[in-house]
Write a structure and sequence with these properties.
four-stranded mixed beta sheet, alpha+beta, 10 strands, 12 helices, four-stranded antiparallel beta sheet, single chain, 3 domains, Butyryl-Coa Dehydrogenase, subunit A, domain 1, about 375 residues, about 15% strand, globular, binds flavin-adenine dinucleotide, Butyryl-CoA Dehydrogenase, subunit A, domain 3, Butyryl-CoA Dehydrogenase, subunit A, domain 2
């Protein structure tokens, strides 16, 4: 068993860490949170120049053909510096590059992969609907009806990250109403500028610099050639995207946890009470120690999942566990962080409040912790509780 990164991976980590120290300073990240609903183009360009978007794109399509462990290394650094930047920048690799690499035909790969790798194309993924995300097969009602050489899409999607800046929407819609829902869904590549597409930002509590949207589709014509994968196999295809997404989301939670821990640790050394730094009090030390344990635990499980993924082994249950362990680490770090900052934690002057707002998104997106627990229990042979 080898817990060490390779030399190339160490270099990759050093490069992205250096980038984060230079470009994602605490002041800049605060500015992003207060002013932006997506990272500005110049930051996107800088990441593109570092080949960030092509990390996992196959080499023959202009990328670097790296694996999930490599992606996690970069994501860990980015998410610790700014979870909003890490999510925003992860959308196109996760919802464009990966599904197209795995499901796309030659034309789709040639058209999209080089442009995703160069950072020119932005993507989002539209699965959740206003009627519900957890029971998506029960809630989904967006349809894509075949009409000549097009699909005509009608319906609405909810909580779609980055849709307001996306060039393309990876849409999951009903293409056969007359069969069991899981056997009647398809994935379509929708040009976000198509007539009939309306995208509105939804106001939310945290992770402001990665906007979340509602999308309406009103008789939107999508060329039939934009079908991704096999018609009516969309549910099974998308499950293949959701598993790696769980690893990615776990890394985002880990980033929040590490940032909250870092800030609280620094404050515990600076702030004094009763003539001592508060970090000398045992309870503060225990808050920090407990958080450190959870961070280490989450980090190990996430990298194990990434390794399983790269080695083509099954990792769905482990990734679901990692999602929960990392969320809980971020929750602990954010809550203890607020305790350690005392009254200042509740002001907008320090970043403790941002970690406290940000961690919450990860508890239910892309899958809620409650549903994750159901999935894990079922994997041990227990009956469905719902
Ligand atoms: C900021 C943000 C960004 C998002 N980005 C995207 C995106 O880019 N693309 C996308 O498609 N979706 C996205 N989502 C949607 C996300 O995946 C859903 O919010 C999530 O699946 C939960 O669905 P819901 O919000 O409709 O909650 P509901 O499904 O209504 O669930 C409400 C509550 O009931 C619980 N519950 C439901 N069923 C059960 C059960 N059987 N057992 C136990 N508890 C249960 C849930 O755990 C939850 O606590 C995003 C959401 C947010 C808030």
């Amino acid at each position: 068993m080898d817990f060490k990164f390779t030399e190339e991976q160490e270099l990759l980590r050093d490069n992205i860490r250096e980038f984060c120290e230079k470009e994602l300073t605490a002041e800049y990240v605060r500015w992003l949170d207060e002013n932006c609903n997506f990272p500005p183009d110049d930051l996107v360009k800088k990441l593109a120049d570092m080949d960030f978007f092509g990390l996992t794109v196959p080499e023959e399509h202009g990328g670097q053909g790296m694996g999930m462990v490599d992606f996690c290394i970069v994501s860990e650094e980015l998410a610790t510096a700014s979870v909003a930047v890490a999510i925003s920048m992860g959308l196109s690799p996760a919802f464009g590059a990966r599904p197209i690499s795995e499901l796309g035909n030659d034309d789709q790969k040639a058209k999209h992969l080089p442009r995703i790798a160069s950072g020119e194309e932005k993507w989002c993924m539209a699965l959740t609907e206003p009627a519900g995300g957890t029971d998506i097969l029960g809630a989904i009602s967006t349809t894509a009806e075949k009409d000549g050489d097009s699909y005509v899409v009608n319906g609405a999607k909810m909580f779609i990250s980055g849709a307001h800046v996306a060039d393309y929407i990876l849409l999951i819609a009903i293409t056969d109403k007359d069969v069991k829902r899981s056997k009647g869904l398809s994935i379509l590549i929708v040009d976000a500028k198509s007539p009939g597409v309306t995208i509105n930002l939804v106001e939310k509590v945290g992770i402001h610099a990665c906007g979340t949207c509602e999308i309406f589709f009103d008789d939107v014509r999508v060329p039939a050639e934009n079908l991704l994968g096999t018609e009516n196999m969309g549910w099974y295809h998308i499950l293949g995207t959701l598993n790696p997404e769980r690893i990615g989301t776990s890394m985002l939670s880990l980033g929040i946890a590490k940032a909250a821990f870092r800030d609280a640790l620094a404050y515990s050394k600076e702030r004094t009470a009763f003539g001592k730094p508060i970090g000398q009090f045992q309870i503060i030390q225990h808050y920090l120690a407990e958080t450190a344990i959870e961070i280490e635990n989450a980090r190990n499980l996430i990298y194990k999942c990434a390794w399983l993924c790269d080695n083509k082994e099954r990792y769905d249950v482990e990734a679901t566990m990692a999602k929960i362990v990392a969320c809980r680490a971020s929750e602990k770090a954010a809550l203890y962080g607020m305790e350690i900052f005392g009254g200042y934690g509740f002001t907008m002057e320090y970043d403790a409040q941002r970690h406290f707002r940000d961690y919450k998104q990860m508890m239910f997106s892309p899958i809620s912790d409650e549903m994750s627990m159901n999935y894990i229990a079922q994997s041990y042979g227990l009956p469905k509780s719902y």
